[in-house]
Amino acid sequence: MKHMKIKNNFLSHQSTKKFNLKLFVTLVGFSAGLLAYAQEEIGVAAAVNTTTTDNFYDPSGMFAERRLIEEGYKIIQDRTIETDEKGKAQMILIDGTAFTIGPNSKVILDKFVYNP
To answer: Is the confidence at residue 61, as pLDDT, over 70?
Structure first.
């Protein structure tokens, strides 16, 4: 009888490990989905001349990250695009809207409304 109890506990432990693994995979997938939603792609850099950067500020307004933009770079909502004194960039949004950012400019892409 004692042997049977140990075997049942072992099987129960294995079931718990499988459940925990499934739960972990589900939560990771859910988190990745939230991250993808939070970083919504709204367009692409079609042409870039010299230094153009994608700057990210955290919700408190503190600078968090800077990335150099090159042709083909995916533009993300809630980011700040900046050019230097010689910089220029042309952006194309997913609705087909195109705009150019000139030298010494800053554009904050805080809201994008697209209703196909």
So the answer is: yes
